[in-house]
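Entry under discussion copied across for reference:
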Amino acid sequence: MTAVALVLAWTFLLQEKSADFFPHSQGTVWTYVSEGKEGKITVSGEEKVGDVETVVLTSERPDRLAEKEYLAIGDRGIRLVRRSIGDRVHDFDPPILRLKLPALQGESWEWKGRIGEEEARARFTNRGEEEVKVPAGTYKAWKVEVEMELAGTKHRGTNWYAPGIGIVRQEFTFEGPGKRQSGVIELKAFAPGKP
């Protein structure tokens, strides 16, 4: 009886964690700032991609094409299933685990698959919780680092996930033949949608 109660309690905690880490009610809006420019990400709906139920995030910034990400959010983590930029669509096969739940300091995981037609691989490491200050405020957030290789390009990034908010800060670097780009994106405002 005690073992059953522990399993049920653990399952409940895992379900709470996924919702806590990434609020996904329709109409939720994150406003980010990067290089002095603002952009908004909105939970614009839900859509089935193959057999996977996803939450659709629409990203808008005046100087870029509209981008959509299709996320599967569950008790074991947050997975990216598809990304579209303008009319270009890229499926992640298998979906890539961005944040493994429950979040545990020091845990690492690897992914190998295809993004569209390209083969790719990634390694994620959860560095634990730390306080991070951004224009929207100061948050206790889980720091997750990623290293990815795709079509001759190396990507290194760090995302800080604050429970109840989602990503509050992102640092990234892309390196390819004759090209390097890096940047920082920080949360300026957060408005939850209606449950």
About this structure: The two ends are 34 Å apart (CA to CA). The chain has one domain: 2-191.
